Amino acid sequence: MTSNLVKEDNIADIEFTQLLEDFSLASNLDNISSNHAATSTTAAQQNRTSPFTMSPLLTLTQKESGNTRDYINDIVSSSVYPPPAQDPQRVLRQMMSLCKHIYSRGLIEGSGSDVTIKAFDKDYHLHRIILYQNSYFSVLLEGPWKESGQKDIELRFDDENITRDAFEIALGRLYGRLDEVILPSQVLSLLATASFLDLQDLCEMCVEVILRDIKEDTVVHYLTFATSHFYGTHSEKITESCFTYLCREGYDNLRLRPAFLTLPAEWLKRVIESDAFWVPSEYERYLFARDVVSKRRKIAAEQKRHNLVSSSLVNYTDLSNLSSDISFPTSPTSPTITNSPIKAKRFPDSTFSYHTRRSASVSTLSSICSSNSLQAESDEAIYTAIFTYAIYYAHMAFEELTAISHDCDSITNVPLAPDYILKDALWHQIDLRNKIENAAETDVTLGISSSEIPPSSTGVHFEIPSDDTTHIGEALTGLEDMIGGGTKAMKDGEGRGSVEYSLFAPFRFSVEFADVAKLKEKQRVYSGTKFYAGSNWNMYIQKIKTPRKGIQLGVYLHRHSMPDPSSSCGNNTNSSTMVNGSSTNKSSPSSSPGTEERYRQTIHMKINNEKSFSRYADKRKTVRTWFKIFCPARGPSHVLTQFQSSPDNFALMQSWGWRSSSLCQDDYLLDVRDFDSSSSSITNNSSSTLKFSVVMGHV
């Protein structure tokens, strides 16, 4: 800081010396100008024959002297009194002092108040000039409303989430209290209040706090809040982030399992049926749904039994003696009636001016029981939908389908998956195999797509992507267009056009890569192989450095090989292979922290040590396949990225994929609990893992 000040002082001295020289030059020019003017006057007096003719010397002298004086004036105004050096710390201290003064004298003490806002049974002595900065109060105080000319204005809120504490925090921000720490315990009420008052910067701060606080014991609470109260894009962002978190962590995070027991049934179905839901295979998707639904049914049965016992102990005679017009005060967060002309009675323990009253009656308990019964029926309908069309059985092994057919729910004693669904899946599996085995080696397509919506026993239709796009949240950017894994530099757009539908359900699987941050340049890491339609498929990632884009991560879908139906083989291999030059090292995904507790309920069936009926080889040299790859961010943004590819040709050992700059950022690699907000970097104790979910299908 000292060196900078000295440097500025030196510059000022130089400017002052130059200023003296300019003044000396100006004086000389003035003297010369006077002499020239006198000479010109004498010449003019002598030559009166041309009164309107001006001497060239006079004209030049006046212009030069005038410009010189203007130059001197500019120098004086800009250099004689240069602005003082601005110290950012001093400016910040002055701003903080001013904000503190406005907050303490203006909001706390109410000095010079010219308007009184009444809310929550309290008078707030405020100032119009301060409130005008806010769009809500500006419209209220200056718009064509009766309140605009009043000194006392009463505010009524119809949102039960708006509280007195949150309202005062919002007012504090208008009065310069910018250092208020937002706690998770108050963030929802503060978001509701800020949204009501149109304090968008405060809303964004609340959303940031919520996203960082999404974890096992809060995700359901935040999701329920965001879906039951609409606060514009802020509710949408919270909903999407909670959904991404459930899709990423739901399967293998045992601490998150209780959240699925209290999650609304509709959202349970949305997570399980989502292509972005990370689960190793479709059979394990079924096992996950079976476990969660069975436990939820047990909880519902216990609750129903408890309600029956409670109802038998209720003394309806005592309830009937209660007067139907007795009103009970609601909680302090109850909504108010804004349009009611009748004012309700005030209770001394209430913090609201107006309340919605509820009367107790004999029918209260029966209404609750009826509501619970309706909710149970709705949940059961959703459970049926989960096992009917949220799970794609067509690509499961015959042994897995056999095991599912023997599964019955312990509460209802009914098979979880409908029998006709399993038979339909097996038929589709045989039909697809027949088309592949009867195709010529030179055939690329199978003719299993249609421009018309095909009939389906489940009512579900599978649209084939018609373009190559990347869908990503607003929090991160930098994703590039699709590129080829081989010699093809960029997708050629083949397959684009009108909407096409697949006649068969797509194939889904998920993989995980650990320690991605330690991946060396040009080093490939392959996932375990997955069998689909006569070929073994896998994914691999590769770190690439380009001169223009810097470090990027390549994400590729790879047609690995043809299976040998005559050999004893398992369904899939779960290990990943790291390739760097000529060396090959095996690394298991289970080395990542917490994976030893991974939820694995897969039973050991004959498929693990015998030939399977569902295994065969596709001898075609090239197949045409569409696919999507989903990658959720681990960091506080909880962004879900989707790479989408229209049908493209896959020869053996050929891959297609993307290069992405964003996937190398901490928001994707680092868990939100390990995210260091001060350094925003990956620490040595953190594990940088990426999870990918893939959905694909032939055409």
TrEMBL record:
<feature type="compositionally biased region" description="Low complexity">
    <location>
        <begin position="566"/>
        <end position="594"/>
    </location>
</feature>
<dbReference type="InterPro" id="IPR000210">
    <property type="entry name" value="BTB/POZ_dom"/>
</dbReference>
<feature type="region of interest" description="Disordered">
    <location>
        <begin position="563"/>
        <end position="598"/>
    </location>
</feature>
<dbReference type="Pfam" id="PF00651">
    <property type="entry name" value="BTB"/>
</dbReference>
<protein>
    <recommendedName>
        <fullName>BTB domain-containing protein</fullName>
    </recommendedName>
</protein>
<dbReference type="InterPro" id="IPR011333">
    <property type="entry name" value="SKP1/BTB/POZ_sf"/>
</dbReference>
<feature type="domain" description="BTB">
    <location>
        <begin position="113"/>
        <end position="175"/>
    </location>
</feature>
